[in-house]
């Protein structure tokens, strides 16, 4: 049974890469603010997702739909509604909430797209996501606070002079990793955390066996920020002896930037899964 993978723009997959792997990407929406109000975001509609799944079904027998975690968006709810509609006509659309976002979602979708059937595709997506880490920093917590995506304690830290909270995003939502003073130090710590997540950077005791990883780097409005972070990350991984299979660099999705702000930086560490047989 052949497989098609559908995700959404929160996966931050470059369009050309998604096309090469046959991955359909449904856009999250940005709604401009009026009368001075800030922009907001909205999930894809049930109808949009229905159309995307139907299009994918013209190329495959089954669809695996991987969307932004329900902890951050209602997209999964609409996806399940669309899948239920299509199931009435006998279509096979499986929706998984992997508890991830950004490159952790994108790398899981890429892993799934290499499978030949739904069962193996779902297994690869789950394995990639369950061993992925997304860590990021932002210049200002105001947008995340306004969108209700931060707990009260973390949100209040954004007002402290020079404080840069390092954050994680997972199936629980957005939470605090640690607090660093100054953007330059926070950026260096972001790289250090990624090296630790990849199994490197230990100063005491033997290092674990090197396990290949895939990385994703995300940036806000300035591509130079992304290039610099990628270079620093690659150097740090090499120094730690970590095997890096690929680094995917891409801007944060437009809807994500509404909540993260223009100066956001993020790093994803995910396992490099073996190629499926056949």
Short account of what is shown:
This protein has 278 residues and is of the alpha/beta class. It contains ten helices and twelve strands. The chain starts with a strand and ends in a 7-residue tail after the last strand.
Textual characterization of the structure:
- The chain is an alpha/beta fold and 278 residues long.
- It is built from ten helices and twelve strands.
- The chain has helices spanning 15-20, 46-57, 75-87, 102-113, 118-130, 142-146, 152-157, 183-197, 223-240, 254-260; strands at residues 3-8, 23-26, 29-31, 40-42, 62-66, 92-96, 133-137, 163-170, 173-181, 213-219, 244-251, 265-271.
- The protein has a six-stranded mixed beta sheet with strand order 9-8-7-12-10-11, with helices on both faces. A four-stranded parallel beta sheet has the order 2-1-5-6, sandwiched between helices. The chain has a two-stranded antiparallel ribbon with strand order 3-4.
- α4 packs antiparallel against α5 (118-130) and α8 (183-197) crosses α9 (223-240).
- The two termini are 14 Å apart.
The succession of helices and strands, N to C, reads EHEEEHEHEHHEHHEEHEHEHE
From the helix content, strand content and strand pairing, which structural class follows?
alpha/beta
How much strand?
25-35%
Across the major sheet, the strand order is 9-8-7-12-10-11
Q: CA-to-CA gap between the ends?
A: 14 Å
| Helix count from the secondary structure assignment | 10
Shape: globular
Write down the overall mean pLDDT: 90
Radius of gyration based on Cα positions: 19 Å
Low-confidence stretches: none
Largest sheet: 6 strands, mixed
Number of strands: 12
Can you give the helix content as a percent range? 25-40%
């Amino acid at each position: 049974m052949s497989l098609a993978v559908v995700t959404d723009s929160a996966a931050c997959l470059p369009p050309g890469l998604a096309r090469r792997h046959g991955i359909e990407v449904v856009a999250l929406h940005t709604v401009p603010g009026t009368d001075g109000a800030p922009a907001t975001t909205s999930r894809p509609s049930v109808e949009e997702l229905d159309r995307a799944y139907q299009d994918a079904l013209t190329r495959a027998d089954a669809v695996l739909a991987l969307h932004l975690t329900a902890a951050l968006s209602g997209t999964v709810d609409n996806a399940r509604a669309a899948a239920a509609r299509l199931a009435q006509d006998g279509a096979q659309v499986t929706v998984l909430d992997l508890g991830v976002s950004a490159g952790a979602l994108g790398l899981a979708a890429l892993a799934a797209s290499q499978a030949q059937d739904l069962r193996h595709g779902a297994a690869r997506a789950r394995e990639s996501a369950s061993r992925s880490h997304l860590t990021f920093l932002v210049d200002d917590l105001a947008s995340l606070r306004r969108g209700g995506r931060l707990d009260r304690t973390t949100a209040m830290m954004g007002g402290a002079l020079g404080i840069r909270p390092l954050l994680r995003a997972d199936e629980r939502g957005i939470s605090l990793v640690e607090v660093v003073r100054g953007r330059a130090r926070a950026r260096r710590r972001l790289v250090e955390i990624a090296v630790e997540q990849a199994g490197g950077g230990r100063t005491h005791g033997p290092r674990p066996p090197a396990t290949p990883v895939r990385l994703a780097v995300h940036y806000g409005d300035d591509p130079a920020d992304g290039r610099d972070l990628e270079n620093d990350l690659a150097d740090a991984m090499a120094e730690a002896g970590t095997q890096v299979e690929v680094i995917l660099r891409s801007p944060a999705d437009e809807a994500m930037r509404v909540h993260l702000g223009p100066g956001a930086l993020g790093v994803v560490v995910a396992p490099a899964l073996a190629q499926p047989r056949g």
